[in-house]
User: Fold these one by one.
Assistant:
Number 1:
Amino acid sequence: DITERKRTEEALRAQAEAEAANAAKDRFLAMLSHELRTPLSPVLHSVALLNEDPNCPPSMRQDLEVISRNVQLEARLIDDLLDVARIRNGKLELQMQWVDAHDLLRNALQICAPEVRARKLVMTTDLGAEKRVLLADPARLQQIFWNLINNALKFTSAGGEINVVTRTTPEGNHIEVEVADTGAGIPPEKLPRIFDAFEQASKSSGGLGLGLAICKALTELHGGTVAARSGGSSRGSTFVVSLPVNSAATVPAALDLPQVDPPEATPLRVLLVEDHQDTADTLQRLLIRRNYKVEMAGSIAAAMEVAKHFSFDVLVTDIGLPDGNGVELFQDLKGRSANGEIYGIALSGFGMDEDIDRSLSAGFEHHITKPIEFAHLHRCLKEIGAKLETKRELQAV
Ligand code: ADP
């Protein structure tokens, strides 16, 4: 009847509105992260340039260390926001491979080691799990461990203890990684919601309250669980991650393969298109120091001009340019080049999976999210250089 139909229509409209609002929020998060990330790149590049200067005094190196650490922290917060957006949309993708949980746990411990020393904490480990090989995304698994250890550090004051233990469960099909501290503890009424996004036991700690929510979602995506317990305020906290392990106790042979560095290639000619002047300048200086031949442009129109007299091997371009899109620029330049032999690297502040997919399907070899870690760009360029070299050798035959 009529009232029933009206109710259904209203419910459908409300649902559509809610979905539109959600989509708008995701777009906003992506935009926000872009705007927040962009200014971080030139800061990191300038730090790298100063650090490379042999005349840089040691005291200044310490300051540079502070700048670089804090910029990276900022980037981490932005990444967390993006992760939460991805998790909420079910769009977080894992790159699964066989890993040894202890390797990743050791990496996480190593990252935290300077902080342990600086904060005068006592760290003990007992990595006793026998079965520890599992199918996991190594970066994400390390993120889970790092997050718990980092929280233990954050909420424990000088003289406190942190104890990291691993064990195989009695039935033999799970590894448990336990991070226990003697710090601030968590009041019982807060415990049930501690893994919810934006939840904090006290507002004084800084941070966004996203770490544990991401930790839980990542653990569950790996088929595991995470739990917290605490004796209450200032009685310390214990977090336990439980993950399914492979029944074979040894690491599959594939893991033992030595890492091969891509061979050194001849210097490449690079057309760098970036409208953020500071980012462009610092990147150009870093590239020239590595013997690349670099020409710069700040827009599509300028890039087309430069391309008339400069033949180049690789286009490194920002995706969002003042007069258009880097993807179109790449396709345009490819179409105009004599043999179509141009490689592309996309730079952008958009780290959403769709953005990365879009550039890769447009033919870019790599998509680098800002802030650009120069070593990463350098690796990508070296890889392209090696490809080009092989191609030239084949043509010479
Ligand atoms: P953030 O640390 O950014 O606030 P998290 O999601 O990592 O976000 O943690 C949420 C809250 O859980 C923290 O604000 C803190 O109140 C509590 N918490 C997490 N780990 C610990 C710990 N080891 N000891 C005491 N409290 C903790």
Number 2:
Amino acid sequence: MAESNIPSTVTTTVPAPWQRAASGANLLAANGTLGVTIFEEMTTLAVRTGAINLGQGFPDEDGPAEIKAAAQAAIASGANQYAPGKGILPLREAVSAHQQRFYGLTPDPETEVIITTGATEAIAASLMALVEAGDEVLTFEPFYDSYGAIIGLAGATHVTAPLLAPDFMPDMAALEAAFSSRTKVVLINNPHNPTGAVFPREMLQRVVELAARHDAVIVTDEVYEHLTFGAQHIPVATLPGAAGRTVTISSAGKTFSFTGWKIGWLSGPEHLVAAIRTVKQFLSYSSGTPFQSAIAVGLGLPDDFYAGIAATLRHKRDILSDGLKAAGLDVFTPQGTYFVNVDTAPLGISDSVDLARRLPELVGVAAIPVPVFCHPEGAERTRSLLRFAFCKKTEVLEEAAARLATLRDRL
Ligand code: PMP
Ligand code: GLN
């Protein structure tokens, strides 16, 4: 092996890129060591202990058979080399048609849509294209872990506005105060992970007005767009004044239950999409050629399919929520996503990070502590909150509920 060029002691006050990312991302790195994400930590723990994994959000059943068949057919027919950097045309067309069918938006598949390696790459490429060191990126808090990491890697400053229990709507005064002349991007996530909040039109419209006033770009992560339970999903790009400054991100992982395929996409005005595409080509160039074909088929599925996934998940939400309530926890009923948050304080718990690390051994269930999605102040506010994923078979959720019912006796 070649000798490493990396000096053994680094004397610089500027943190290395991985340190910037880690400090933005999760508590595991708070002690200065390189950490894995909370999702990987909890899944590893669940596997080691044989616990039911309600931590990392992935379904335990595959998505529609016709989408799998389309991927197999694409592989068999030889669609196995690089896709174009911006994605195959049938999928870009399908993304555009989906935006039109559900929201009346008409992005041009040639210039206003790109296919990415999951929403994760769409987020990374957008931030890297749009922000520079010294710029501020504004998100809600709690925030999805990759946001903090990528803002850190981009050398930007991460400013947050809190979402407050029990309904996890933003404190509007704090949101307004969080904007500044350096706000370059407002990164919205709606429906929101980890809280399950679905933001109403008036609130989103206010964000658009504030972004316009500060000349900020809105990047909106709408990967859970079809997973809502009664509350209407309002894409930011449909609001007056938004389209010209908004990049919309989504992913096949959530809608079609193929999280492992990592097919995502984004759409927005040509000048923003062109800048993001420039960065994206140096991240992955392109990926998943046969999966791209298959997701084009998926996006064309009839409206019944989309209504069906939401109805199924709503039922699962209710099974798990009832179990969590019966276990003595305070449940914050989500309006969207496949996550439900609970307050463990009624059981006398004040540190959900510690509890999450012990929960698999205690009762055979894994969950994610909400403070890991926060900076220190937000972590204090959410210190007793835990997030459970309910994208699992109903019998698995019932078994998890039965196990959690024993928690109060095992603490
Ligand atoms: N954004 C949010 C809010 C998510 O919850 C996730 C994944 N669960 C992603 C982005 C990443 O999506 P993908 O797996 O398509 O990269
Ligand atoms: N987004 C999924 C979650 O919130 C996990 C994705 C990942 O492991 N990076 O649980």
